[in-house]
Each structure stands twice: as structure tokens, then as C-alpha cells.
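stage 2 :: seqdesign
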């Protein structure tokens, strides 16, 4: 199976009230952008019906995946999803749409207009960060403190 072009990671905790709408909206947006996509839902220890609702979606759409973990926080859920994602481009969307995919359209030209060398440097930094277990423990706080040009 070929790796998807775009991965969307959705961290969730007790989102039974909005996860169906989230998956439906995200998959609809992705279908208009590319045929090659995946949605990775990372459940951070929900004690409601969130997991069963995602599993229902998985039965009808093979590009939706579910990862579960004990409650470790949103940052850990995002990190786990990003490390599991296979897409060349990876985005995060909140189940409650605090970070809606429609807001990513303005960054698309910027991403694709970067020089090849800068893009390769950026990807090498991400790979180095992903494999450095000391930084993984600190999660996204370490990523936020770096400026990558």
C-alpha cells in the first residue's frame, strides 16, 4: 500500500458528542483536496462512547485509523498520532474544530514554495526529533521552542 499524501491527526478525549461530525467533515474536506489521505484518531483514555463511534467509521472507511492510549494529555496524543502518520504532509485537527482544516489553505502555497533544500532540512529536523527519545518525553514544548527557516 502506498503512503498517503496527507495525514490528519485528531486527538480525542471523551468526544462522543462531536466525533461523528468531526470525522465526517474532515473526510469530506480531504476528499476535495486529494484521493490519498488518512485520518488518525488518537483516543487519550476516553470513558465514553468515543472509541466505539470511531470503530464504526473504520468499518466503512479504511483510511480512518484509531490509536488508543491511557490518559497522558493532548500533547502526547498528538505526538503519538504524528509519529504513526504515514502522510508526506501531516496536520492536526481538534474534534471540536478549534483548528479547522479550512484554515490550512493559506499555508499551502508557503509549504510548496519552500526551496527543496529548506524542505529537506525541515524534514531531517522532524526525523531527528522523532527518533530522539529524550525530546519525545518533552513533546511539543521542544518543537515550539525551535524556529526552522
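stage 2 :: out
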Amino acid at each position: 500500500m502506498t503512503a498517503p499524501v496527507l495525514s490528519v491527526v485528531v486527538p480525542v478525549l471523551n468526544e462522543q458528542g462531536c466525533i461523528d461530525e468531526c470525522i465526517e467533515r474532515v473526510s469530506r474536506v480531504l476528499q476535495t483536496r486529494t484521493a490519498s489521505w488518512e485520518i488518525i484518531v488518537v483516543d487519550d483514555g476516553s470513558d465514553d462512547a468515543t472509541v466505539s463511534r470511531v470503530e464504526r467509521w473504520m468499518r466503512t472507511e479504511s483510511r480512518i485509523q484509531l490509536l488508543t492510549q491511557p490518559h497522558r494529555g493532548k500533547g502526547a496524543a498528538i505526538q503519538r498520532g504524528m509519529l504513526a502518520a504515514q502522510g508526506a504532509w501531516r496536520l492536526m485537527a481538534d474534534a471540536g474544530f478549534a483548528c479547522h482544516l479550512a484554515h490550512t489553505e493559506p499555508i499551502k502555497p508557503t509549504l510548496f514554495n519552500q526551496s527543496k533544500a529548506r524542505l529537506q532540512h525541515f524534514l531531517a529536523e522532524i526525523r531527528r526529533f522523532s527518533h530522539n527519545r529524550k525530546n519525545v518525553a518533552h513533546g511539543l514544548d521542544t518543537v515550539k521552542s525551535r524556529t526552522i527557516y
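stage 3 :: structure notes
- Helices lie at 19-33, 50-60, 74-84, 107-113, 116-131, 133-138, 140-144.
- Residues 50 and 60 are 16 Å apart (CA to CA).
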